[in-house]
Amino acid sequence: MTITYRFSTPVYPSNILYVNIVSNYTCINDCAFCSRPRTKKDFHKPNIYAIKAGTSLYLKKTPTLKEIITEIARNISKKDKELAIIGLGEPLIHLP
Questions:
Q1: N or C: which end of the chain has fewer CB within 10 A?
Q2: Are 89 and 24 in contact (CB under 8 A)?
């Protein structure tokens, strides 16, 4: 499970720690700005974020708060300017 990761581009410097908290790729696959797969046959294939991070970003389960805090503590750097809470999916789908 990859909870925290980094990647660097000219727009997004490597001093951002990304915290991946959405499991199972729960998503409507319909956001205009998204680079994720659009059809079921494309699910679980690497997308632009996974390629840049150098690892699969699909989580088999939602991480616990303890797992998230442990990973942040293990990977945070004094050089970090941002902590980005993200995920491959849409967390609002889970609201009642």
A1: C
A2: yes
Sign of the torsion angle spanned by Cα atoms 44, 48, 52, 57: negative
Query: Mind listing the pLDDT tens digit for each residue in 2-56?
Result: 888 887 777 767 788 888 887 666 666 566 556 555 667 766 666 667 777 787 7
> What sign does the dihedral 31-1-68-9 (CA atoms) show?
negative
Check: pTM over 0.70? Answer yes or no: no
Q: How far is CA 32 from each of CA 42, 43, 58, 66, rounded to the nearest angstrom?
A: 17, 17, 21, 33
Give the number of C-alpha atoms closer than 13 A to the C-alpha of residue 3, restricted to the C-beta side: 17
